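I have been asked to look over a protein record a colleague put together. Thanks in advance; the entry in question is below.
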Amino acid sequence: SHPPGQLSEYDAAQQNFISKRTLARRLEAENSSFSKLRDELLMSLAMDYLRDTKLSVEAVAVLLNYHDSSSFRRAFKRWMRMTPQQFRQQFRC
């Protein structure tokens, strides 16, 4: 029910009727964390937008709730080891 990138750990815990700490413990038991899951979701959405739409990198950054496109570009490069433009070029025919 939240836009991508806006769901907080507190909100996720509250929606599952557990405390933030209980959520953290359960995710840790699965060798995961809220920030790791959030990054995976944002990465997947970013890849889909860049691959399947003609939206600008700036528009994708806004959709994913980044404050500016440079923050999104840095995150994308950290995830994929390439820029959003390089990723998109891989899918051009």
